[in-house]
């Protein structure tokens, strides 16, 4: 009989949503970090470079840059553009490549969801670019009849940053996995979010390395038995939503492969947003981590394990029988059927509130709380490329057009003979 620890995903993992059990011999320690005197955090308003003040004056944008919250208007004659009659269909976005994911993989549903959505977004194919890293999920650009780059492990944000800086009118999507985005690409992900490059980032989270056949990833739960953690993972997982919020992302959402309608809604919202839109998508890897999210995605458990958050609406779930209320700063589940509480007692979700996003984002390990799906946070602020082109214009207006030749020959130069 094969040793059970050599088997990938042997089915002994704790269901998601429950506080994971530490491997034997490891007890959690709760330590409070004390700041040294004089290091209390101060709330300071950031100073913008000259010509880039956000308030009062709205600077005129140079050609190619667009103001926050606006999507580019396409030239006449282009599909979906001003006066263009041709509407593309889902099949127009499918390439002639054979899709090489395992039968039953959640990646198929995400691919179909994106291809179904694109005709409604009205962006011509020649303006669309899908950039991925490495992993099963990162094979995505092959299957799209658009421009695309299957790039280097964890570096899709890097390529996307360069492309958007040079060609801000392009509609750029980053496709990445939990390993690609959060292990090798962790540094690049936080900076693309901080810089607020106007891209859509779709993180296919299957809580495992799929392509390399089932090693644990930064989102694998504590105690997870995999090929690379035969005695159970001893590492706390990242929660991608709170990670993105911490990296000052201007749009943060979560959806799932098994709810096409919700995924379409979230992706559309992400696309509407000017700036980096981060979307975590729970994706089933039926080969190496089957059922990782079934608590939240399957009919029998979804109603009481998932809560769908909507702006300006009370946080209600379980077919309207339960809600989420704030008890001090803690979210608690309340019963709406026994006459004690009503919908008026529930949190009315505000997706522009960083504080609420933090609270909802941390509804993660509690057995007695559902996990939220939807748009956690949205903030209107200029994208990096808007600011970049504004700054170039400001400096050019002031100092005139630059001369590269003169610049190269200025200052201390040497002639090598
Ligand atoms: C520089 C480098 N390091 C490691 C690898 C091996 N590798 C390929 S994909 C991958 C992880 C993929 O996991 P994830 O991003 O979660 O994608 P999935 O396959 O699960 O969709 C790793 C470690 C590599 N290809 N290149
Ligand atoms: S290994 Fe998993 S993630 Fe990769 S294609 Fe197969 S089912 Fe999908
Ligand atoms: Mg993965």
Helix fraction, binned, reads: 10-25%
Give the overall average pLDDT.
87
**Main sheet makeup:** 8 strands, mixed
Side by side, the strands of the main sheet go 2-1-3-4-6-5-11-7
* Number of extended strands: 11
Low-confidence stretches: 1-17, 28-44, 54-66, 71-81
Q: So how many helices?
A: 11
Structural class: alpha/beta
Distance between the termini: 75 Å
CATH class of the largest domain: Alpha Beta
| Order of helix and strand elements from N to C terminus | HEEHEHHEHEHEHHEEEEHEHH
What is the CATH-assigned architecture of the largest domain? 3-Layer(aba) Sandwich
Bound small molecules, by name, code or SMILES, are: thiamine diphosphate, iron/sulfur cluster, magnesium ion
Rg, alpha carbons = 24 Å
Considering the chains and any ligands shown, give keywords for the structure.
417 residues, Rossmann fold, 8-stranded mixed sheet, 24% helix, binds iron/sulfur cluster, binds magnesium ion
Describe the structure.
Strand 8 and strand 9 form a beta hairpin. The chain starts with 106 loop residues before the first helix and ends in a 9-residue tail after the last helix. Helices cover 24% and strands 15% of the residues. It has 417 residues and is an alpha/beta fold. It contains 11 helices and 11 strands. Residues 1-17, 28-44, 54-66 and 71-81 have low confidence and may be disordered. Helix 1 (107-121) packs across helix 6 (260-272) and helix 2 runs parallel beside helix 4. The strands form 2 sheets. It has an 8-stranded mixed sheet, with helices on both faces. A 3-stranded antiparallel sheet has the order 8-9-10, with no helix packed on it. The chain folds into 2 domains: 88-313 and 349-400, Rossmann fold (3-Layer(aba) Sandwich), CATH 3.40.50; 316-348, no CATH class. Magnesium ion is lined by residues 135, 177-179, 206, 208-210, 217.
């Amino acid at each position: 009989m094969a040793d059970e620890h050599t088997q990938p995903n042997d089915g002994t993992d704790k269901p998601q949503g429950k506080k994971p059990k530490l491997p034997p011999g490891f007890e959690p320690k709760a330590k409070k970090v004390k700041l040294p005197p004089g290091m209390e955090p101060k709330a300071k308003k950031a100073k913008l470079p000259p010509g880039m003040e956000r308030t009062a004056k709205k600077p005129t944008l140079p050609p190619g840059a667009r103001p926050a919250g606006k999507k580019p208007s396409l030239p006449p004659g282009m599909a979906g553009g001003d006066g263009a009659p041709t509407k593309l269909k889902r099949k127009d976005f499918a390439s002639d490549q054979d899709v090489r994911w395992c039968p039953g993989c959640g990646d198929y549903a995400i691919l179909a969801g994106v291809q179904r959505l694109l005709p409604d977004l009205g962006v011509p194919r020649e303006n669309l670019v899908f950039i991925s890293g490495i992993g099963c999920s990162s094979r995505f650009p092959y299957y799209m009849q658009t421009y695309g780059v299957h790039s280097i492990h964890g570096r899709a944000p890097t390529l996307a940053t360069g492309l958007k800086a040079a060609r801000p009118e392009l509609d750029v999507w980053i496709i990445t996995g939990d390993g690609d985005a959060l292990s090798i690409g962790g540094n690049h992900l936080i900076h693309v979010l901080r810089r607020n490059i106007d891209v859509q980032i779709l993180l296919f989270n299957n809580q495992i390395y799929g392509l390399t056949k089932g090693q644990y990833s930064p989102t694998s739960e504590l105690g997870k038995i995999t090929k690379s953690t035969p005695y159970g993972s001893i590492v706390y997982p990242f929660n991608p939503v709170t990670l993105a919020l911490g990296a000052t992302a201007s749009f943060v959402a979560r959806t799932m492969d098994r709810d096409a309608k919700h995924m379409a809604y979230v992706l559309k919202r992400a696309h509407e947003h000017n700036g980096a839109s981060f979307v975590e998508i729970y994706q089933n890897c039926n080969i190496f981590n089957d059922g990782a999210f079934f608590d939240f995605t399957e009919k029998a458990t979804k109603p009481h394990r998932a809560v769908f958050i909507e702006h300006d609406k009370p946080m209600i779930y379980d077919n309207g029988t339960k809600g989420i209320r704030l008890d001090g700063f803690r979210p608690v589940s309340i019963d709406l059927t026994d006459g004690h509480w009503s919908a008026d007692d529930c949190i009315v979700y505000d997706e522009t509130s960083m504080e609420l996003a933090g609270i909802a984002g941390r509804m993660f390990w509690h057995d007695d709380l559902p996990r939220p799906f939807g748009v956690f946070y949205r903030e209107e602020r200029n994208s990096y490329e808007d600011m970049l082109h504004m700054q170039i214009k400001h400096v050019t207006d002031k100092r005139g057009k630059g001369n590269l030749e003169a610049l190269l020959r200025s200052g201390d130069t040497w002639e090598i003979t």
